[in-house]
Write a structure and sequence with these properties.
Two copies of one chain form a homodimer. Chain A is an alpha+beta fold. Chain A has helices spanning 8-14, 19-32, 41-47, 52-64, 80-102, 111-118, 124-133, 180-189, 222-225, and strands spanning 68-70, 76-78, 159-160, 169-175, 196-202, 209-213, 216-220, 228-232. The first copy, chain A, is 41% helix and 16% strand. Chain A is globular. The structure holds manganese (II) ion (4 copies). One manganese (II) ion binds at residues 93, 97, 112, 115 of chain B. The structure holds a DNA duplex.
DNA sequence: AATTACTTTTAGATAAGGCTAAAAATATAT
DNA sequence: ATATATTTTTAGCCTTATCTAAAAGTAATT
């Protein structure tokens, strides 16, 4: 089945990181997007649902492999190699999500779990061909940007729906929370990426919003408004 | 990332077997197709390029999980649950191979290694949708049959090219050896699935064949002729 | 500054999956 | 029937990735 004898080089480079190591790298990558300080052991543990002691062990290993710098008690930071590696996993994850939605009729709340597995498949050709097959998409089904081959990530201009003022109009371009509960709620309300949303009113008392979508009026809580990204019109 | 808390049931059923267990099951499945006796420890070890002692350990575990029956020193046999499980992995492997060739422009000698990874992705919906997306293919790129959802495998009528007599004509329907070396050799000679092949002459001395493909005459060794499946015309 | 609380690391254990070397069982040859 | 060869199993060790409990370090509070 697997042919270890030939393709030694391809085998080696494509197996630089285990699935577990890749999941840690990705977690650190995501945490660094929202924090400039060193990423704490506990933060990582929470993100990947493991124990702090396991994180300490893994972080030492990643440090040996030169993908993070680690100072005891001071948290970790990705090296540029680490950033590139992590971005590549995110790239794969998001391309697979696009595939699942565009080609296999998954809904946007069903793709994450499967992509979590598919992101670990080792084959540069596979991901390049997939990218081409999907016509080089720039965003995943949740509106998140897809890193390019070099790991560069072009973030689009976006604001939270909660920041819109009365009578302003925005286009939905992404979600902050991509749990299936939230996504299914959005489906139910008819809110998808690309949907135009107008703020009819804002309630000072609880920060809820009255919005208009497709000529229908709808009231949404502050929590919803703080998890929806829009582009101002 | 992975959400173990919700979907406990889906999590459990889709994680019944580890990647390693699945590879063993598949190896035994393939070995049983060419042997009616219990599959020996050594045969499995050779197939998955591991040591006999590792096989003994794994076989005990598979026996505990009721997918094989194991009698010390007597080899193993798949139970019906084991057969179904293995067939499902083969189904996934071959569907992914079709996907890679049909949609991502892989050549037939490049798909196996990647399919070896993709076959372990756990998602019933994924494989059902993929099947539909590919238009319910019945053979993989090497001409091997794709088991159905129940694990039933419809083998087509086929014979080795070596069994054809002088002046008989066959259609190439599969390969016995699917190593990339052999497949690339076939590419070079212009032999693909569906190709018509006429036997012009057989050489008694070394059992080599003189064949005609696309109006061109070609001499092939007995080894080649014993690794090409054809359907007699 | 001292105490308390929280975070992080260490130490030690476990389970999966692999290995080597030796022992035991089976098969083959004399 | 015995001796030899081969196959298979067992015993013991290793690595990876987890965990719990305890120790050590850092931060917050009085
Ligand atoms: Mn996702
Ligand atoms: Mn993952
Ligand atoms: Mn294959
Ligand atoms: Mn495999």
């Amino acid at each position: 089945m697997i042919n270890k004898k030939n393709n030694i080089f391809a085998y080696l480079i494509s197996n630089m990181f285990t699935q577990s190591e890749e999941n840690y790298l990705k977690a650190i990558y995501h945490l660094e997007l929202v924090s400039t300080k060193g990423i704490s052991t506990n933060a990582i543990a929470k993100k990947i649902e493991t124990k702090a002691s396991s994180v300490t062990d893994m972080v030492k290993k990643l440090s040996d492999k030169k993908v993070v710098v680690y100072k005891k008690y001071k948290g970790v930071k990705l090296t540029s190699l680490g950033k590139k590696t992590a971005a590549n996993i995110v790239r794969k994850h998001r391309l697979w999500e696009v595939f699942l939605v565009e080609k296999l009729n998954f809904s946007w709340d069903e793709v994450h779990e499967v992509a979590e597995q598919l992101e670990h498949i080792k084959s540069p050709k596979l991901i390049n061909q997939l990218d081409a097959f999907l016509d080089f998409p720039k965003q995943d089904p949740h509106g998140d940007p897809i890193p390019d081959k070099e790991g560069n990530l072009k973030t689009i201009e976006k604001s939270l729906l909660a920041t819109l003022h009365k009578n302003e109009i925005g286009i939905c371009v992404g979600v902050n929370d991509s749990s299936s509960e939230f996504l299914q709620f959005l489906d139910k309300q008819g809110i998808t990426i690309g949907q135009e949303i107008k703020v009819l009113d804002k309630e000072d008392f609880d920060n809820s919003l009255s919005i208009e979508i497709d000529q229908k009026e709808l009231s949404i809580s502050s929590k919803i408004a703080n998890n929806l990204y829009i582009q101002k019109k």
